[in-house]
Amino acid sequence: MRHREISAFSRKTNALLVISIGCIYLTFFHLLSACLLAGDFEQVATWAAGETAVVSEPAVPPVTFTEASCIYTSDEIDLEMRFHLAIAESLEGKYRKAVRVLGQLDTEDTAALYAAAMWNFESGDVEGGVAILEELASRSDAPKETSKYLAAGYLHLDRAVESEMAVDLYLSENAKDSYSHFLRGLAILRQNQPERAEHSLRNAGYDESQMTQIQQVAMQVPVDVAQRLGTITGTQAATGSLVDSRRIPDKNYNLTILFAGEFDSNVPLQPKFSGLGSNIDYEDYRFLMASFLDLQLLTSDVGNLGLVGSTYNTFQVDLNRFNIQDYMGGAYVNGLLFEKLVGSLRYEFHHTLVDESRFASEHRLTPSLSRLSTYGHTTMFYEFNPVDARAPALIAAQEQSAETHRFGVTQALYTFGGNGRVYAGYQYAETNADGSDFDRTSNMVTGRIERPFCDSWIADLDVRFVWDDYDNPNSLDFFGRPRDDDRLEVRTGLQKNFVRPVSLRLDYTYINNDSSDTENLFGVQFYDYARHIFSTQLIFTL
């Protein structure tokens, strides 16, 4: 009896085991078929490789949603299911995942487009959200808040004029919305028009003291570190935006062409050089053409590799023996070494001609490190610059071919949302020349400020001071003294950005070189000069 009971129990156990195994195989076959029909080959490959997870806790696992396929479908039920799955993810605060689950957008579904825009905003992809709202803005069934959030997005991207236009559209039907008045006030402040912004900020409920604080903050909003990283390395952070396919792709090149007319009060930089002591000034007008090309060959989220080239040609009206031609070609590589630390290496070769004859050729190799922060970046660099000069030399001491080792540090602070900046720098250089007249050490300090103001004008002021201490007695000095130069350079300008890609720039430059320790028997100071340059430039950025 006992044996028959055990045998019966064993048969029941075997039967249950066979049924269980069969159910497992049926389940696996059903899932495999469903994946194949849905085109989800990646999930099939994962199962085939045995990449499964066993979860023991909790006993009843929570419900999870499988990410939808990104293959485009016009099936209304599938689109609706994706939308609801995305909503479920957004309710848990997983906005990036909600965007991915939604997949390729159904451009006919206004509700899905609007939700996708909001999820892009929440996940930090403001450009993606703005692009979707721009598509919605012209639709009659778009939510009434579309223009308000579009204004907020424009403001975040520092497109202040468009922000004001969008929020005005919303306020035309919602005049009591205090937040929209606040947005309008900020947009006007970003255009540097504080008087006009007061009315909007008052309508938003702020008093005089609060408006002053708002103005100070609005005009000093720092540029995001990720954006500044993109500027230095030439890369763009991947955002996974839903509208990437509808955007114009980022260019892998930048081309600038410049035309200028200049008056120069001292073309050859030797206004007082004369053996007998009579002063000679060489002033003239010239036309100038220059171009610069930056071509990115490889670009990733952590760095890039590119080529650079430039041309520079001057055409003097009278003194054509001082026409200058300079041609440059080179390459660079930038890389993110650690968080907020960028390493760079740049090489340039210059070939310079004066009056169509070779004057000099030089190589510049510059490694550098830049540390990024919210408010600016700090850069340290070293430059190795050997120059092979063909300048006229009466004696060996005047040979100008040389090798220069330069070390420097710069600090930039971003102001006015990144459109302006304050810049300071220091450089130390040591030059070993073939001729003893040009062995020297140099120190330079630089300060620069750029400030945007109304109607897209930008004003800048650049001041630098250079001390050149020469090591050996100068061959032209009657008393055999070493040369010692102090040079002041001041440059100020205004630049107006017209319809892209055209800009106009007005410049004034003053240079004064004081070399009082070097003179001839008649008291003529060979290397003293003062120079005034007035320039009008037309710039095309393509």
UniProtKB/TrEMBL annotation:
* SUPFAM superfamilies in the record: Porins (SSF56935), TPR-like (SSF48452)
Checking Gene3D superfamilies in the record gives: Tetratricopeptide repeat domain
Per UniProt, the keywords (alphabetical) are: Membrane, Transmembrane, Transmembrane helix
Write down the superkingdom of origin: Bacteria
- Membrane-spanning residues where? 12-32
InterPro entries with a match to the protein in the record: TPR-like_helical_dom_sf
Q: What is this protein called?
A: Tetratricopeptide repeat protein
